[in-house]
Every structure is written in structure tokens, then in C-alpha cells.
Design a protein that fits this description.
17% strand; 2 domains; alpha/beta; 420 residues; Rossmann fold; eight-stranded mixed sheet; seven-stranded parallel sheet; EC 3.13.2.1; 45% helix; NAD(P)-bd_dom_sf
Length: 420
């Protein structure tokens, strides 16, 4: 097999990457089942796919399944800090995927790689944050006539897509993989909750028990993070702009405060909102010495990094791996993790493979659905068909050897009838 075009750090890392990918595969039984089905049926024969995703072992197993189905795939990294160089090498050398990703690449290289994978004239786009779709519309609109649809797997990306759609700017059908029950409940809640704390502990080796963690945002990700932090003994404070979510946090026993009041009492701050400037200059100025700042809400705009730079009189880079210390004029020190990017991927390895198994099984089956039904989908944002979510849940339960009840015909009739 000829080696596909690529720009990776070191193809000599491929053997180590294969071991990493195979280890992750052990915890991904639902996706393995999809892989076997795709290998037998070849539903994606002749389809070109461009992807912008985190280059991790879990992603590699999704791409292996799509390749088994016949797809020709080109992958660009969605975050330079999450790229595993050995996984990138394995995808190229062992699995035949074109990869354009290097750990720590600069923004110019990141943008160039998006254009490179789009210039392969894909039929389908797999996006993580809407950067690939945005680049296609803004820089290469002539290619959109060949793009038949795509998938978006993040909350931030879906928000951006809905904004494009509302303005009539979205020219292709995009399916919101992020919005499925399995994705929100397991990936966002359990995956982000565990992996974010993993990243914080790896970067700081701090004790959470007895400390105050401020969780900015109480969506699915924020709920999962708050649950796990409380389980480790932290006092959890939640900040929110949504009254319903704030009330939910209160009813679950969390302290809810505006950030201007939480700033003075927090030891660890984590943003999980999907919005910008959640932690601003006035908040930074009120924080105690040694406060830790982390983001798990996708883009590096949730913490106002320019304001942090302006407040600092000295910046000590990498006081620990993925931890930069900003010294303020009065001697207080604020510690920023993973440069304000996703701490769970920048300072750790992202979600456990068992979590990504469900998300990526949904994604793979959604790609198959798009290939078969794209002619019936108008430009805009669409939901994943409910039967896909249900099928993945059943696959996962079967892998866990869990049996559930089935309704009797009488029960089905009762629920579907309006008669007494």
C-alpha cells in the first residue's frame, strides 16, 4: 500500500502509535461492531471524507471503521495541544489515512492544514468546533458544490452552525452529533467530568479535597465536572447565566454565585461554557495567590488571556508541564493550565476510550446515514435519527452483558392509545 500524503512529526513513531490505538480499541466494543459491519458491507466505497478532529487513539479507531467501510480520509488536527504524534504516525503508516497534524503546531500551520484537507474535494466533513465548515464557506466556497453533508461533534461547533444557518450562510446539511442523548450524557457529563480533573491533577498535582473549585457553566459538562469534584472532597461553587441551570445547581446542593464573588474564594477555576470572556480582568484581579485557571469549554477564549498578560509583571513558563505561572504586581501568582486550551486534552489524554466508544459509534453510523440520505436533507442543522442513538446504546449494553426489559404488546398498545 502506497503511503498516503501527510505532514506528521515522525513516522518512526508508528509502532508505538499502533500499540496505543489497539489499547484504546479494547474499550470500544460498540465501535468494533460498527467496524465489522462496515468491513462487510462497504457502505462508504468511493466517498472522500475531510475531518478536523483531535488526533488521539480513540479518533484513530473511528477513522479505521470509516476506512473499513471504503472511505478515503484526510485528517487535520482540531487542537495542536491534543495531537498524539505517535497516533498520527500510525494512522499514516499502518492505517492508510492522510494526516496533517503535529503536536504544538502554530496557528498558521493549523489553518493551512484545514485548507489542505479541503482541497482533496471531500464529499463529507467531520468537524470538531466548526472550523472546517467555516473555512470551507469562507475560503473555499467553490468546493461546497461537491460537499454533500457533514457531522459536528461539539457544543461550540453546533452553536456556530446554528448561527450560520439562522443567517442563511450554511450551504450544506450538517448533523449535530453532539446533541444526541448518548453524547451529552456520557461524553459531555462523564467524559468531560473525569478527563478535566485528570488534566488538572496531572498539571498541578494539587489536592482537591478541602479546596474550593469554581465551575463556570452548569450544562452537561459542568454538571459532570461538579459531581466528580465534589466526589473528591472539593467545595464546589457554580457560576451561571441561565436561571434554570442555576436553579438546578442550587437544588443539587451546590453554592451558586456570580463570578465577581466567586473569584475571591476559589482555589481552582474551570470554565465549561462555550462562550468567551467568562473569566475577565476584574475577576483575575480579585483571585487569591496560587489560584489555578483551566478551561474545558473548547476554544481558548473563555479565560481572557490578553487581560491576564496585561495584569502580569512576569510570566514563568512551564513551572510544571502544561502549567504557566503569571506573577501580578503585588506578588500574587495565578497558574494557567494548557495555555487556556482544553485542559483535558492539553494536560491529559481526553475522554476515556469507553466514553468515546459511544460517541464515535454514533458518528460512524451517522456518516453511513448521510451517505444514504443526503439527497433528502436540506442545508441546515439536523438531528441524529433517534434509532441510531438507540442502536448504539443497545450495542454498549450488550458489550457490558447488561439485559433490559422489553415491553409486552399490551404495554405498547397502552402507551400508543388515547383510549381509556
Amino acid at each position: 500500500m502506497a503511503q498516503p500524503a501527510n505532514d506528521v512529526a515522525d513516522l518512526g513513531l508508528a509502532r508505538a502509535g499502533v500499540r496505543r490505538v489497539e489499547w484504546a480499541e479494547r474499550a470500544m466494543p460498540a465501535l468494533r461492531g460498527v467496524h465489522r459491519r462496515f468491513a462487510a458491507d462497504r457502505p462508504l466505497e468511493g466517498w472522500r471524507i475531510a475531518a478536523c478532529m483531535h488526533v488521539t487513539a480513540e479518533t484513530a479507531n473511528l477513522l479505521r471503521a470509516l476506512s473499513a467501510g471504503g472511505a478515503d480520509i484526510a485528517l487535520a488536527a482540531s487542537n495542536p495541544m491534543s495531537t498524539q504524534d505517535d497516533t498520527a504516525a500510525a494512522l499514516v503508516d499502518a492505517y492508510g489515512v492522510s494526516v496533517y497534524a503535529r503536536a504544538g503546531m502554530d496557528p498558521a500551520t493549523y489553518e493551512r492544514n484545514l485548507v489542505t484537507v479541503l482541497e482533496r474535494r471531500p464529499h463529507l466533513l467531520l468537524d470538531d468546533g466548526c472550523d472546517l465548515v467555516n473555512t470551507a464557506h469562507a475560503e473555499l466556497p467553490g468546493l461546497l458544490s461537491e460537499v454533500l453533508g457533514g457531522c459536528e461533534q461539539t457544543t461550540t461547533g453546533v452553536i456556530r452552525l446554528r448561527g450560520m444557518s439562522a443567517e442563511g450562510a450554511l450551504r450544506i446539511p450538517m448533523i449535530a452529533v453532539n446533541d444526541t442523548a448518548t453524547k451529552r450524557m456520557f461524553d459531555n457529563r462523564y467524559g468531560t467530568g473525569q478527563s478535566t480533573i485528570d488534566g488538572i491533577l496531572r498539571a498541578t498535582n494539587t489536592m482537591l479535597a478541602g479546596r474550593t473549585m469554581v465551575v463556570a457553566g452548569f450544562g452537561f459538562c459542568g454538571r459532570g465536572l461538579a459531581e466528580r469534584a465534589r466526589g473528591m472532597g472539593a467545595r464546589v461553587v457554580v457560576t451561571e447565566v441561565d436561571p434554570v441551570k442555576a436553579l438546578d445547581a442550587v437544588m443539587q446542593g451546590y453554592t451558586v454565585l456570580p463570578m465577581e464573588r466567586a473569584a475571591a474564594i476559589g482555589d481552582v477555576f474551570v470554565t465549561v461554557t462555550g462562550n468567551r470572556d467568562v473569566v475577565r480582568a476584574e475577576h483575575l484581579a480579585a483571585m487569591k495567590d496560587g489560584a489555578v485557571l483551566a478551561n474545558s469549554g473548547h476554544f481558548d477564549v473563555e479565560i481572557d488571556l490578553p487581560a491576564l498578560e496585561d495584569l502580569a509583571v512576569e510570566v514563568r513558563r512551564e513551572v510544571r508541564p502544561q502549567a504557566d505561572e503569571y506573577v501580578l504586581a503585588d506578588g500574587r501568582r495565578l497558574v494557567l493550565l494548557a495555555e487556556g486550551r482544553l485542559v483535558n486534552l492539553g494536560a491529559a489524554e481526553g475522554h476515556p476510550a469507553a466514553i468515546m466508544d459511544m460517541s464515535f459509534a454514533v458518528q460512524a453510523l451517522t456518516v453511513d446515514y448521510l451517505a444514504r440520505n443526503h439527497k433528502d436533507l436540506a442545508p441546515g442543522v439536523h438531528d441524529v435519527p433517534g434509532e441510531i442513538d438507540t442502536e448504539v446504546a443497545r450495542l454498549e449494553l450488550a458489550a457490558l452483558n447488561v439485559d433490559i426489559d422489553a415491553m409486552t404488546p399490551g404495554q405498547e398498545d397502552y402507551l400508543s392509545s388515547w383510549r381509556v
